[in-house]
Amino acid sequence: MTAAWPPPPIHTERLVLREPEPRDRTAIIDLLASPEVGTYIGGPQPRADLERTMPDPPRRRPGLFVVALDGAMIGTITLDPRDPERPDQIRLDLARYELGYLFLPQTWGRGYATEACTAALTWFTTAHPGEPIALSTQTANTQSLRLAEKLGFTEAERYEAFNAEQWLGIHPGA
């Protein structure tokens, strides 16, 4: 992330995007251990492993936002540089950064992902003018594909990874 990090917290109508705080540890473990969340990302992580290995406080790093509703973490958004060494990340000529998001299942269907991702993309395009950003998801994840469309991503290609068809979309930036 070349822009100054961390930015001040980003406020939307209902949410705050901010760095992780010690109080987020349990919710992050719940998120990563959730079978529903893990459906399209290789499965849930074992709770016991997360309890043992998750730093307290949770690790802060450039590009990682916690999404909070009324002070409580409900999800995460990442804006990460794409890694040419990972086989699931292809076509670096299209975008050098990738948007990722995970939300607790009890928050799904309420527009939080759209609201939070829109705010993160606005911040990103202001911090990185003209820089396109990628989003990849399994084609079977129809909710994620709908969100990508709402956010203005257009399909660049489909490819096979992790024994599933993947969709790669590109957002042009500002």
UniProtKB/TrEMBL annotation:
<dbReference type="InterPro" id="IPR000182">
    <property type="entry name" value="GNAT_dom"/>
</dbReference>
<feature type="region of interest" description="Disordered">
    <location>
        <begin position="40"/>
        <end position="59"/>
    </location>
</feature>
<feature type="compositionally biased region" description="Basic and acidic residues">
    <location>
        <begin position="48"/>
        <end position="59"/>
    </location>
</feature>
<dbReference type="InterPro" id="IPR051531">
    <property type="entry name" value="N-acetyltransferase"/>
</dbReference>
<feature type="domain" description="N-acetyltransferase">
    <location>
        <begin position="15"/>
        <end position="169"/>
    </location>
</feature>
<dbReference type="InterPro" id="IPR016181">
    <property type="entry name" value="Acyl_CoA_acyltransferase"/>
</dbReference>
<dbReference type="Pfam" id="PF13302">
    <property type="entry name" value="Acetyltransf_3"/>
</dbReference>
<protein>
    <submittedName>
        <fullName>GNAT family N-acetyltransferase</fullName>
    </submittedName>
</protein>
